[in-house]
Predict the 3D structure of the following.
Amino acid sequence: MFIDRAVVRVTAGTGGSGASSFARFKYKPKGGPDGGDGGRGGSVFVEGDANLATLLDYRYRTHWKAERGEHGRGKTQTGASANDVVMPVPPGTEIRDAGTGDLIGEVLKPGQRILVARGGRGGRGNAHFATATHQAPREWEPGDEGQERQVELVLKLLADVGLVGEPNAGKSTLLSVLSAARPKIADYPFTTLEPNLGVMGLGQGRSIVVADIPGIIEGAHEGKGLGLKFLQHVERTRVLAFLVPVDAENPQAMFDQLRTEIREYSAALYQKPYVLLLSKRDLLPDDAAVPRLSAPGARWTLAVSAASGAGIDELREQLWQLVQEERQANRDLEADEVPARRLPDEDRIEWGDDPGTGPEVHVEELLDE
Ligand SMILES: Nc1nc2c(ncn2[C@@H]2O[C@H](COP(=O)(O)OP(=O)(O)OP(=O)(O)O)[C@@H](O)[C@H]2O)c(=O)[nH]1
Ligand SMILES: [Mg+2]
């Protein structure tokens, strides 16, 4: 199952409390305060994992929680910090605060980590509170609370070229000819129900990634067919390739319709560089003219046939050229680090001054003053 959206609750660990404790030695019964600090609570991170292709795991596990830090102990022993929890996601995953919709960050590369819930700091033990006039402090701090929130994960496939067309336009067939991908192909609409990715290699280490998405029909922006929900997977592509079969009843109307649906979905997608592919070229007699369409802003138009191979070599080279130009122009997409929005630093929690009511505080060798 291809899952490209999930909402999960993330809970970081609370920091451990500081200890209130006094040292006692054989010849020095009042050795002074020695309560150690609490350990840090575990944080929750999202991390890119190249082995994943969907957010399916998050259907089954909707709460990710890190442990709390250990409490401090006597002899100024600091409590152990809790381990962080890491949520693996496929590269191309956007993370938003489910409450506000704010973008927290995007994972674009394997190994890239984004903090989604910050663990609480450990509280200070009473050893920190001694002063010249206050030599036997009992004060200690509780640990800070760990952050908790709902986050929305949205997968947007990372590809260079996105194939867009009505059902049966030949998108999957073209992907299978350009790459080693083997998507399902059939002569009925909506054969493709989930996006497919293929790597188109051109030798000498040159390669580009092509995405095939489910077909788009008139009224898709109103939810017809599979709607526009898969268009999120071509939002990050550098180039769109529109497919219009040469044997379409009205190729111009079909193309205009596709452009309209794209515009309804997003102005940014509409502005993206695009090319027009007249597919199934073999269905026209060799000497017949290919339909000439008006495609304002198209970088180029090419007639191709996945069946006969006509125009395919040229298509590969031209796509490579165009993707290279876009790669040069959009260095930002290649950026090593996408700055994640910094989480607000939590306000410091008031520290407790009554060790008698302190929760789970580890009190050792407590002596009367
Ligand atoms: N003659 C001819 N038929 C083609 C060509 N490319 C695809 N077809 C046929 O067109 C039909 C649809 O092809 P698909 O690749 O499944 O089309 P699609 O655009 O992926 O369709 P959906 O997944 O339903 O959106 C199949 O019967 C293909 O065999 C071509 O170049 N020439
Ligand atoms: Mg298909």
Notes: Residues 1-155 form a domain with the Spo0b-associated Gtp-binding Protein; Chain: A, fold (CATH 2.70.210.12). The first helix runs from residue 57 to 60.
